[in-house]
Amino acid sequence: MTGTQQQEIMDLRALNLTPKQIARKLGMKVSEVNAAIQNQAQQTTLDRLTKGELDPVYQCLASESLIQLLPKIPPENSIKNILTKILPVKNNDDIDRGLGLVVIARVARYNQITVCTYLLDIWCLGVKDTISPRTVDRIKFKEFTESLFEPFPGKPHLVSLEVAQGMIFSACEYAESLGFQPHRDFEKSRSHIGEWDRKIRIECGRDGKPFYVNGPHDNPKKIMETLKRSRGEGNFDFLIGSDPIEKNFW
């Protein structure tokens, strides 16, 4: 294949033509067009890796519970946590809104998406769980994300990378101020998020203080002791013995 043909294929691909349409237009085999597209995608990926760049963002998704934190007009350096103004917890619906899910997907190579997920406890523990980079095709990505968000009320929302970063790192910072580290697998999925410019953040906690709601994999005694050391007796709220949404996560 000549360099001119390769460029013609990429130009037509940029116009969102399918490989079959490109092959017909250029009088080539579909397999040749597919090979050219895949080779170009692989070379682009290698060029980015050489420069230390991340793959481009495909989609960022956030659960309805986190979207509720976003006002219509964000103030300069903060996204107000409207959850601090809700009534005291009366049922599991209110409890569930302390948890939210963020998914960041990047274009890995031709027809392949690399996905990382972040389960956030914005009231206390920060990043409670995470799925480190997993590569799927576009069809599997749709099925994968639908299953991930199924336990959460409402539909997932598309958000910008900056908003996704603000949600994740705000939860991390708050949890760390209380003495809690992110989930052990966060180290594997941290780089996938990119660098946070700290312009967008959410206020965490509830009613101005930590609110711990125990999950199925927590050590409540250890967590309570940590909160007592970092905040002092009576300066945090807690609910033990709940049936939170995360029991169905993954």
Task: Kindly describe this structure.
With 250 residues, this protein is an alpha+beta fold. Helices cover 40% and strands 19% of the residues. It is built from nine helices and seven strands; from the N terminus they run αααβααβββαβααβαβ. The strands form two sheets. Strands 4-3-2-1-5 form a five-stranded antiparallel beta sheet. A two-stranded parallel ribbon has the order 6-7. The longest helix has 22 residues. The N and C termini lie far apart (45 Å). About 7% of the residues have low confidence.
Describe the structure concisely for a colleague:
This protein is of the alpha+beta class. The protein has nine helices and seven strands.
What is the CA-atom radius of gyration, in angstroms? Answer: 22 Å
* Portion in strands: 15-25%
**Class from secondary-structure proportions:** alpha+beta
Spatial separation of the terminal alpha carbons: 45 Å
Question: Mind describing the biggest β-sheet?
Answer: 5 strands, antiparallel
Strand order of the largest sheet: 4-3-2-1-5
Q: Any low-confidence stretches, pLDDT <50, length ≥5? A: 79-95
Order of helices and strands: HHHEHHEEEHEHHEHE
Q: What is the residue-averaged pLDDT?
A: 83
Key phrases:
19% strand; 250 residues; 5-stranded antiparallel β-sheet; 9 helices; alpha+beta; two-stranded parallel sheet; 40% helix; elongated
Secondary structure topology:
Blueprint: H1 3-14, H2 19-26, H3 30-51, E1 57-62, H4 64-67, H5 92-96, E2 99-109, E3 112-121, E4 126-137, H6 138-149, E5 157-158, H7 161-178, H8 186-193, E6 211-213, H9 220-230, E7 237-239
Parallel strand pairs: 6-7
Antiparallel strand pairs: 1-2, 1-5, 2-3, 3-4
